[in-house]
Amino acid sequence: MRIRWLMALLLLSVIGIGGFTAGSLVAGKVGSETKTVNKEDPTGLMKRSWPNTKWWFWTPGDTVDNSWPVPYQPKQPIAFSHKLHAGKMKMDCQYCHASARKSKSAGIPATESVCMGCHKVAATDREPIKWLANEVKEGRAIEWVKVHDLPDFVRFHHKPHIQAGVTCQECHGQVEEMEEVYQHAPLQMGWCLRCHQDRGAPQKCYTCHY
Ligand code: HEC
Ligand code: HEC
Ligand code: HEC
Ligand code: HEC
Ligand code: HEC
Fold it and tell me: What global pTM score does this model have?
């Protein structure tokens, strides 16, 4: 990993001598996108052709799980449905992911204070809710499996995005229609950069790298 880092930085500095700066490298214009979601290609990234995609948008991409674009969708301990809670019941995302607008992580809700607020009375006869109540009684935290995971050398905070009005769906897809959450976006460097370029957000290496 460290070697690849050094190699990539070395390569970029060599290009730098050729008259480019890292800033102008990433400032090129990218072709327009269609907004219709294709299940095979949810972000539209795959169908971008060479003239529209600069090679440096792709090179750092190979740290990502190779199974993408088959979206990563781990099995969760119980069948908690966003489609039901956020879709049908129209609960606000930030009711459960309350720290998104004020910190680095969006946060996963605590079972006792958030879920049991309703499930002390709602659907108490159902198996998953009995299990939930028992976990709370036994003082165990639910081991939800992390869906999104950036490498440690990347700095990502929810706060500036939410405050700049970027919606959850732009990065996570239509979560309110998902029975089980899956990774909608590739989370590759080029994906971050394309949006930063479109929105005039910072694109310097140290914006996202420590
Ligand atoms: C009733 C509470 C609740 C609401 C409302 C809710 N979520 Fe969640 N969310 C959870 C729980 C619990 C998990 C962890 C289990 C899972 O992944 O399904 C989770 C997981 C997630 C994940 C995956 C996190 C990871 O591991 O990477 C994303 C993304 C997410 N929610 C986005 C949203 C969005 C967007 C909305 C609004 C449309 C929303 N959530 C509404 C409770 C909620
Ligand atoms: C600019 C893109 C972007 C936006 C907007 C965004 N997220 Fe995320 N989200 C991410 C990335 C990237 C990760 C993985 C972070 C990591 O691994 O450090 C993540 C992780 C999460 C997680 C897992 C727990 C955590 O915080 O690491 C949840 C839950 C989540 N997001 C919910 C939301 C909700 C709810 C919203 C809207 C209020 C939202 N996100 C908006 C990109 C985004
Ligand atoms: C605003 C109230 C509310 C909150 C908060 C809430 N739920 Fe629910 N949940 C419901 C209701 C109501 C139902 C039953 C819907 C129906 O009639 O099928 C339900 C259904 C469920 C089911 C499906 C039960 C079944 O098999 O039929 C699960 C699992 C579940 N909730 C888990 C959770 C978890 C985990 C949390 C916390 C992250 C949570 N809920 C937070 C109201 C809530
Ligand atoms: C859908 C658009 C979008 C995507 C995707 C996106 N960002 Fe952003 N990002 C923004 C916007 C808009 C801002 C706010 C810029 C501002 O406040 O001027 C921002 C701000 C930031 C900031 C704070 C910059 C600063 O110094 O104020 C960091 C760090 C950041 N993004 C990292 C990332 C990373 C890492 C990814 C990919 C994992 C990513 N972003 C993906 C739109 C996006
Ligand atoms: C907007 C955020 C953002 C900016 C700006 C950014 N990167 Fe990245 N970078 C990322 C993300 C996210 C990853 C992780 C991608 C992955 O896991 O595939 C990454 C990965 C990398 C890697 C690791 C490649 C690998 O395969 O291990 C290198 C090297 C790198 N970036 C160099 C740079 C350099 C040099 C710049 C400045 C020209 C830069 N990055 C600017 C977000 C950013």
Answer: 0.84
